[in-house]
Fold this protein.
Amino acid sequence: MIHLEKISLNQLFCLVILTQVGVHVLTIPFEESRHSGYDSWMSVFIGGVIVQAVIIIIYQLGKKYPDRPLPHYISAIAGKPLGSVLNFLFAVYFAESSLMVAVSYSDVINRWVLFETPWFVLIGVSLIIGVYIASSTLRSMATITQTIMVLFLICFIIIFISGMGKGDWRHFLPVGTHGLGSILKDTLPAFWAYAGYELLLYVFPFVKHRKKKDILITMSLANGFTTFFYLLISFIVTYNYSESQLNSIPEPMVFLLRKFNWPVVQSLDILFMTIWLSVTTVTVYVYLFLSARYLALVGGEERKNHTLLVWIIGIVCFSVGVWVSDRQWMYQFANYHNKATVIFTGILPIILFLVSMARGKVAGR
Amino acid sequence: MKADRSLDNNEKSLQGMLFHSSDFKSSDFVAGDRRYRLFYLDTMIELDMVQEHIIRPLLISKDVSVREAVSILEYDETDLLSVAAKALVEGKTVLQIKGEANLYLLGTELKKERSVNIPVNERVLRGSNEALVENLNTNLNLMRKLTKTPDLVVKFYMLGRRSNTKIAVLYLRSLANEEVLKEFDYRITNIDIDYVEAPGFLQELIEDKKFSLFPKILVTERPDRVRSYLMDGKIAILTDGSPDSLIVPVSFWAFFQSPDDYQVGWLFGSALRFLRIVCFLIAISLPGAYVALVTFDPRLVPFEIALTLQSSMQYIAMPPVLEAITMLVILEILREATVRLASPIGQTIGVVGGIVIGTVVVESNLISNMMVIVVALTGIASFIIPSYEMSSAARLLTIPFIIMASIFGLIGMLLSFLLVLSHLARKNTMGIPYFYSMISRDTVKDTLFRGPIRNLKKRPKESMAQDETRIRGSRGSAE
């Protein structure tokens, strides 16, 4: 057989962007403006910069073990028992992220598009698609993602034209009056929206590249694109809504799209949310895939049956997902999830990197 | 069994081996002191050839050996009766001299074949007008004439335990991927079956998995098309008795390419290619999208158009899903009927189907006229795809799309697209990925668009050719 498991830099670019963007697009910059108000775009930007720093750390970590993905070498850094536990925790975190995305987008669809479809059907359908795609290989996932990128670009254009409506530049003024403190406070919710780049931890050895540097450049470009995209949305929203309006619109993007009148399509929001489902599906299946891959390496031997693992995770997610139809629950769940995101995508990679550095030093002596 | 010295004994044994077939004949003649006997199947031999090139020279030259006397190229000797029996079935004449336990096998087979015709199923406006025929040798001759290089390898396989069908595999030694060749060889030599019906049987037997929504082997009847794929490093399969050639491994996008694209200039060629892909999308999704729009999201369309839709559906009793499926089934029935009908009656179908059903169904308020337009467009769009297999696949997908659209609206359409996409992305042919995304840099030049020939410097990646460069210099003058 010809080796098929490698993905190209182009595919990595698409994978990272589409895993990063997800349901958050609809709420940006609502959550980021709790403290910083109309200066939220700065929080979004700073969030992107922080993520860039973490990407560099992950890249350095990957460079130390260029032939293996994280779940393989985690025991080399943290020791066997702790490595297994960490793998398991990562697996749980990814499964939970996947569920989180599926649940929140099903909620959006339930509220805006399909009002009467039962909850478990929505959850079931989005998870089944995710599971079906995640149960294949990394390469085929990357190919699908590349194609979905086209749909993403359509969404991008829709957002762009809909934002060109009547607005006021004075909504931005005066710049920076909220103070650095509150802007920094809001980088935390911005940081959650960028989660997804941590897939490099797993994917690093599977990328075809000429120089290692290419991977870092591609990752940075992808993250830069996402930052640009988020910034664009923050700008568009702030341009259209003042701070006091924004305080009462938790999903400003949807309102913008609904407001916009285009002679060909009456309500762009439905079209947008339909196409956007494909983008959130990417996040769902990438996380399901990662979860299964981490789970495969918990304990001693590698479990070979990837498809089965994905299905098991999918079924577990589904049974949990059916119970969180209550929105109160969902908020709590989201709260917990956001904390986990910071730990797993920010703090843990940094600690792992520091430990591996220290070990390298010790071994060097 | 060894041949006997006695003519009669041999005749009896051969007769037994052919189970006393009535067309088994023998005939004697004497020249000088030699006594000859010919065995043959009189349905399989060319009489003139036997008379002119075997009997006459043997009668004239009495003292030379058989090899020196007969003027026949296909000459063989054996002392095994089983070999002789096999040769008889292939249309050879078996000659024996009395007193010798040696059999001469002489190629005298009768060739009944039609002449090389113009392609019927894959017509183009520009380009060659030759089509493959049923005779394997003629086909190989056509291919050799188009590809005059010793690099072109022809390899024979015998397939079919009871039919002994000859299969020729063609590839260019310096281009075709070794792994693929090995994989292909492994697959084809491991087939043990009574007989093969080409191209259908072969296609299914060498495919990777039984279940596939889309065709994974390209079938063509045009030698020039076969050549263009050989030049990409692919493998072509020709079967005796079938005027079609199979091409492996091909990717999804190959089914949207037509020789015409490369004849009309790249701008127009790209437009054609793009049109075909759009038509493929229309063929699988238009009725579904329409159903989703009218049942779920009439809000999506502008008010005036919504009113038009509304007025056309006002008196229709059936729900749009049923309307769509009914119309599609009618269309399929009409299509199938036109294929099967004798050609003089064919036109009746056009009248009955197109005019009677089309108008009356609308006038009697069974189906809205909007739906008739949608389905007609879908049908026509599906016929634009150059590959018959791919267009059938598109038509087969339409109905699941409609059903999904009727359950989930536009979301259902998107979900079905994702499902089809993931089905495509996990397929392999001969261990090579079947689907390449259209936006990756390597493939975009010849998938969604047909780039200028000068820019198609590399062979498509999907065939994983040994040598990727196709153009080394595009023209004499400097750019």
Notes: Chain B touches chain A at residues 177, 179, 296-297, 299-303, 306, 408-411, 413-415, 417-419, 421-422, 425-426, 428, 431-433, 435-441, 464 (CB under 8 Å). Chain B has a mean pLDDT of 85. The radius of gyration of chain B is 30 Å. The first strand of chain B starts at residue 24 and ends at 31.
